[in-house]
Amino acid sequence: MSISAKSLRRYWVSVLFLFMTISSSLCFAEERQSFFDQFRESFKESYNTGVNAAHFQGVVVDAALFSRSLARYYEENQAFPATVEEIQFSVFSEHIDAEIQLEISGVFHFGLSDQFGNNKSLTMTPVLDNGRVSRWVCHSNVSVAVSQGTFCVSVN
């Protein structure tokens, strides 16, 4: 059986085409993998930020409840308590890591868990008006993305 030159050329063109297809697929496979790795990392970062934001909102709710108790104590006593125990408030988020630091001026600090980063905290400062707390100012050193959507201002 003899193979014509035309058949042989078709065969080698097919082999060459197949080789080029496999080679380009391998290149695209690496590019695809790189793309998916980058996507996965950015998604993970976005997901973690969203989870931290939800947990931070829980911390802010606890801070608002605590500040309400402090305001009530202030209105009844015309002074802030010397200790947290005086207002008998104990419901706190699992994301508050350290004990509450309470200053005599009514300013209080929540130390936050390492989930938010190292040495992160939330501080609430009372604004007094005519013998009562008219409002609270909230500051935190968590990222803006985490504190977004709360009344707490992020100061990094």
What distinguishing features does this structure have?
2 helices; Glycoprotein, Type 4 Pilin; 156 residues; five-stranded mixed beta sheet; alpha+beta; rod-shaped
Summarize the structure.
With 156 residues, this protein is an alpha+beta fold.
Description:
The protein contains 2 helices and 5 strands. By secondary structure, the protein is an alpha+beta fold. It has a single domain, classed as Glycoprotein, Type 4 Pilin (2-Layer Sandwich), CATH 3.30.700.
Topology diagram in text:
Blueprint: H1 5-77, E1 101-102, E2 108-111, E3 121-129, E4 132-140, H2 144-147, E5 153-154
Parallel strand pairs: 4-5
Antiparallel strand pairs: 1-2, 2-3, 3-4
Main CATH class: Alpha Beta
**What would the principal axes of the Cα set say about the shape?**
rod-shaped
Query: How much strand?
Result: 15-25%
Radius of gyration: 31 Å
Provide the structure class.
Answer: alpha+beta
